[in-house]
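Hello forum,

I keep getting stuck at the same step: I have a sequence, I want structure tokens, and every attempt I make locally crashes halfway through. Rather than fight my setup again tonight, could one of you with a working pipeline run this one for me? It's a single chain of 146 residues.
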Amino acid sequence: MGEVILIALKLVVVLGIQKTASGSLITFQGGQGELLGSRSDYTYCLKLAERSLERKQPVGIALSGNEVVGVARAEADIVSRLVEQKDKDQLNIWFQGHDGTFALRYQHPEFRRISQALHTSMSEKKQLWFVAKKPLLEIQDAAFTQ
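Reply #2:
Ran it on my machine without issues. Output:
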């Protein structure tokens, strides 16, 4: 059986997109990555990156080395409720404008930073950006923008 590698989505704002022979080079805060044109979801991923560039809003990007292996739409909302679920090893999150129960796993490598942002959003009624893996609604990253 093969090894399973989980790659987390990270919120970034796209700063530039350059077409290459093999796809597109996406430049964002803190780095860049190649989105290969051979991907079945290339057009959709490129559209999300272009929207981030045009609107100066975050998008979720996952990298493996220098390759973009995932792009996901980021959402903005205010946290309305947080509940610790020790038996499930997660923090449950509800947002004002989103249906469903989102979750942040305690073992997430950036749990402390993301959890702090979620608590700040709730206590200050401040909108934050987040990206979640679907269909589980598992929070991958959350941050405030300037």
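The first helix runs from residue 42 to 55. If your local run keeps crashing, start a new thread with the error log.
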